[in-house]
Amino acid sequence: MALSVLVFTVVGLVIDSQVGTMPIVTIALVVFSVVGNFIRMYYTYDGRMKTLEEQRSSASMAHQRDRSLSEN
To answer: Which domain holds residue 67?
Structure first.
């Protein structure tokens, strides 16, 4: 995460020094990088939680199915 922010900062500084717009592009790219990282973290977390919920639900249903089969 920090590496991508650093890369976007360096790219922004290079562009700003070439164009002469200090620090507009740098700030824009850093904000873009930080927002992108948080969005990526959110979707990674959300996907992982959904997978774990499905596994937990399947395990509890399997336990109930096994129990009902043993009672019959």
So the answer is: 2-71
Output the six-digit token pair for 68: 């009902």
Total domains in the fold of the chain: 1
DSSP state of 20: T
The candidate with the shortest Cα–Cα distance to 4, out of 39, 36, 43, 45, is 36
d(CA 67, CA 28): 58
The token duo for 48 is 């992982």
End-to-end CA distance of the chain: 55
d(CA 5, CA 61): 44
pLDDT, average across residues 55-67? 77
Supply 9's token pair. Answer: 């900062």
Q: pTM higher than 0.85 for the full model?
A: no
